[in-house]
C-alpha cells in the first residue's frame, strides 16, 4: 500500500517543492510591491490563452496551448508595466482587479463555446497534480532555475524597485522596462505553473509562504528560508491528507495552506508586527519654544513624520531605510 502511494505521489510532491522554490521568492516581491492579486490575474490571463487554444483544438499538454497562454501573459505583463507611474492617481490593484475580472469572464465565454468547456475551466482552477511525471518535474525545474538565475543577475534593480521605488525613480532607473522584465519572467513561471497546478494553487504557493516569511523573518534570506520551509511543510500535509481521504490533490493543498496558519500559535504571527509597532512609536521631543519640557509633543510641519517613523515601515514603498538595506544585501 505504501509502495503504491509512493509510486503515485513522489512526482507530485517534487513538483510541489519546485513550485514552492520559485513562487515563495516571487511572493516576497509581490507583497513588497503591494500588488497581491497580480499573480492570480496573470494566472487567469494564462488560463484565458490556454482556453482559446483549447477552443481552436489544441489540448492542454501541447506546445501550441503553452504558446497561447504565454503570449497572453506577456501582453498582460506589458499592460501592468505601462500602468505603473511614479505619482499614482489610481491604485494599480484596481487595474489588476479589472484585468482579472475581464480575463475570467472571457475564459468562461470561450469555454462555453468549446466541447467539455466546463471540465477545462475546472482544470484551470485546480490543475491536475497527480498527472505529473518525473520528466516533467525535471523540465519545469530547469525552466524555473533559468528564471531564478535571471532574477539573481537582475537582483539589484528588481529589489530596489520592489522595496524602494522612489529611490529607483530618483536614480534614473527605467522603471517600466524593469517592471516589464519582472512581470514577463513572472508570466513565464505562472504560465507553466497554471498548466500543472491550476490558478488557485499557484496563487496559494505565491502568497502564503511569502507571507509567513515576511511575518516571521527580518532579512530577505530569512524570509525566503521560512517561506520555503513553510511551503514544504504544507505540501507534505496536503498530499498526505489527499491520499488518506481520497481528495483532489490540488484543492486539498490549497485548503492546507489556509488551515495550517490557523493552527499555528497566534504569537508566531503577531511577533513581527509587534516589533514593528514598537519601532513605529513616535519620538517624544519638546515643542518649539518649549525646550526642557519633555512631556510635550513636537508640533510644526516636520513633526507629523519623524525619521524614526519613516524608517520603520517595513516593506512599504515609502521605506528608504529598510528597502535600501534589503536591496543592498542582494547587490
Report on this model:
This protein is an all-alpha fold. It has a domain at 2-208: ABC transporter involved in vitamin B12 uptake, BtuC, CATH 1.10.3470. It has 14 helices and no strands. The model is unreliable at 271-323 (pLDDT under 50).
Radius of gyration: 22 Å
Query: Based on CA inertia axes, which overall geometry fits?
Result: globular
Helix content: over 70%
How far apart the termini lie comes to: 50 Å
CATH architecture annotation name of one domain: Orthogonal Bundle
Write down the CATH class of one domain.
Mainly Alpha
Low-confidence stretches: 271-323
CATH topology of one domain: ABC transporter involved in vitamin B12 uptake, BtuC
Number of helices: 14
How much of the sequence lies in strands comes to under 5%
Query: Helices and strands: which structural class?
Result: mainly alpha
Instruction: Tell me, rounded to a whole number, the average pLDDT.
Output: 79
Largest sheet: none
Number of strands: 0
SSE series: HHHHHHHHHHHHHH
CATH-level-4 superfamily name of one domain: ABC transporter involved in vitamin B12 uptake, BtuC
Amino acid at each position: 500500500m505504501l509502495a503504491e502511494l509512493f509510486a503515485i505521489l513522489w512526482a507530485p510532491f517534487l513538483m510541489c517543492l519546485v513550485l514552492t522554490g520559485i513562487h515563495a521568492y516571487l511572493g516576497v516581491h509581490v507583497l513588497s510591491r503591494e500588488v497581491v492579486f497580480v499573480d492570480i490575474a496573470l494566472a487567469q490571463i494564462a488560463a484565458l490563452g490556454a482556453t482559446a487554444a483549447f477552443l481552436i483544438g489544441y489540448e492542454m499538454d501541447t506546445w501550441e496551448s503553452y504558446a497561447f497562454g504565454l503570449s497572453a501573459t506577456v501582453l498582460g505583463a506589458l499592460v501592468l508595466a505601462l500602468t505603473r507611474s511614479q505619482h499614482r492617481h489610481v491604485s494599480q490593484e484596481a487595474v489588476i482587479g479589472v484585468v482579472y475580472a475581464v480575463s475570467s469572464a472571457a475564459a468562461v465565454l470561450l469555454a462555453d463555446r468549446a466541447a467539455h468547456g466546463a471540465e477545462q475551466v475546472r482544470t484551470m482552477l485546480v490543475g491536475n497534480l497527480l498527472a505529473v511525471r518525473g520528466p516533467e518535474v525535471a523540465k519545469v525545474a530547469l525552466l524555473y532555475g533559468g528564471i531564478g538565475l535571471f532574477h539573481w543577475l537582475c537582483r539589484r534593480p528588481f529589489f530596489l524597485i520592489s522595496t524602494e521605488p522612489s529611490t529607483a525613480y530618483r536614480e534614473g532607473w527605467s522603471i517600466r522596462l524593469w517592471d516589464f522584465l519582472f512581470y514577463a519572467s513572472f508570466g513565464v513561471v505562472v504560465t507553466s505553473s497554471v498548466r500543472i497546478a491550476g490558478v488557485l494553487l499557484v496563487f496559494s504557493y505565491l502568497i502564503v509562504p511569502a507571507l509567513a516569511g515576511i511575518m516571521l523573518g527580518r532579512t530577505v534570506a530569512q524570509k525566503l528560508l521560512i517561506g520555503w520551509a513553510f511551503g514544504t511543510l504544507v505540501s507534505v500535509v496536503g498530499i498526505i491528507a489527499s491520499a488518506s481521504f481520497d481528495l483532489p490533490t490540488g484543492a486539498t493543498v490549497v485548503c492546507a495552506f489556509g488551515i495550517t496558519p490557523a493552527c499555528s500559535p497566534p504569537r508566531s504571527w503577531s511577533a513581527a508586527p509587534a516589533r514593528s509597532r514598537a519601532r513605529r512609536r513616535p519620538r517624544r521631543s519638546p515643542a518649539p519654544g518649549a525646550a526642557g519640557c519633555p512631556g510635550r509633543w513636537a508640533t510644526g510641519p516636520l513633526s507629523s513624520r519623524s525619521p524614526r517613523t519613516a524608517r520603520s515601515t517595513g516593506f512599504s514603498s515609502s521605506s528608504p531605510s529598510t528597502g535600501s538595506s534589503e536591496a543592498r544585501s542582494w547587490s
